[in-house]
Amino acid sequence: MRRKVIAGNWKMHNDLKQSEDLIKSLKELLKDKSVNCDVIVCPPFTSLSEASKLVNGSIIKLGAQNMHFEDKGAFTGEVSASMLKSVGCEYVILGHSERRTIFDESDETINKKIKKALEQGLKPIFCIGETLEEREKEITKDVVMRQVEKGLEGISSEQMKKLIVAYEPVWAIGTGKTATPQQAQEVHEFIRGLISSKYGSDIAEDLVIQYGGSVKPDNASELLSQKDIDGALVGGACLKADLFMGIITNA
Ligand code: 13P
């Protein structure tokens, strides 16, 4: 039985004080609640260190939103996996569609980042998903297959056990337009099939595949009740503690 994982991708929101307030509010809401899923928050880099202190001792785990694939060097503006580890991160979001489209990250770059994260003991939340144009052309599965094959090239079975996949149809991100539970389930099942043919059914069955794209408390429970949807990667709704808590409760 896979345990559900609810992660909040804060994107470029919240300065230090706002980050502290949001985590404190979330901790308050989680207090004394028995929660049946893993909870991850991914604040901006500038808040990670303080966030790490605040989540310590709670069920909330910490993730970052990106990293570079090199260990160190002249890469102005970048941060390394070991830097993220040093501020208490356990997870890192890689391959988000905003990184792919706005910052031109290729499947090859994302693959290097995934390898480095795993080598350094960080658990990648590996994002994949098609654009609206690709869905309309009915090439969703081809796109997802390419992203999985290239993104996971050279990743061992042991490493796969540390990784989370997040299926985020680009047309559903920040648009209020959620994939229907059936649309999402179809792609999730396809992804699990891809992993099964590459790594075997045991690893595929244990793999957590999150859905992301306009997840809100009122659509979470139907999405999360689909057979192959094991959690959510939440954008907008994770910026308000009560909404994020609503999604956690529905998991
Ligand atoms: P929204 O929940 O705002 O659609 O964002 C989803 C997302 O991109 C999470 O990574």
Overview features:
globular; alpha/beta; 8 strands; TIM Barrel
Report what the structure shows.
By secondary structure, this protein is an alpha/beta fold. The protein has one domain: TIM Barrel (Alpha-Beta Barrel), CATH 3.20.20.70. It contains 12 helices and 8 strands. It has helices at 16-30, 45-55, 81-86, 97-102, 107-119, 132-136, 140-151, 157-160, 181-199, 201-206, 217-224, 241-250, and strands at 4-9, 37-42, 60-64, 91-94, 123-128, 164-167, 208-212, 231-234. An 8-stranded parallel barrel has the order 1-2-3-4-5-6-7-8, surrounded by 6 helices. The longest helix has 19 residues, at 181-199. The radius of gyration is 17 Å and the shape is globular. 42% of the residues are buried. The mean pLDDT is 97. Residues 9, 96, 168, 173-174, 212-215, 233-237 line the site of 1,3-dihydroxyacetonephosphate.
Structure at a glance:
The chain has 251 residues and is an alpha/beta fold. It is built from twelve helices and eight strands.
